[in-house]
Amino acid sequence: MPVDPNEPTYCLCHQVSYGEMIGCDNPDCPIEWFHFACVDLTTKPKGKWSVWAPAFLEN
């Protein structure tokens, strides 16, 4: 099934929502939602999680 071109994209990879995703708790985060694999997560971290390195977001 093709992806709906109107479906929003997320993450560093700019893909649609799929699989396990995590929301960034940093209110200034421009992306907000990330796929686990794209940010090297295999399990949900306890507590708050955020992408802390601006260079990480620039990739």
Automatic annotation (TrEMBL):
Location of this chain's protein in the cell: Nucleus
In its UniProt record, which GO terms are filed under biological process?
A: chromatin organization; positive regulation of apoptotic signaling pathway; regulation of DNA-templated transcription
Sorted alphabetically, the keyword list is: Chromatin regulator, Metal-binding, Nucleus, Zinc, Zinc-finger
Q: Does the keyword Zinc-finger apply?
A: yes
Output the InterPro entries linked to this UniProt entry: ING_fam, Znf_FYVE_PHD, Znf_RING/FYVE/PHD
Q: Does the keyword Transport apply?
A: no
Renumbered to this chain, the signal peptide range is none
| Annotated site, Histone H3K4me3 binding, chain positions | Y10, M21, D25, W33
Listed under GO cellular component are:
nucleus
Question: Where this protein primarily resides, as one coarse class?
Answer: nucleus
Q: Which GO terms describe its molecular function?
A: chromatin binding; zinc ion binding
Q: Which family does it belong to?
A: Belongs to the ING family.
Kindly provide the name given to this protein in its UniProt entry: Zinc finger PHD-type domain-containing protein
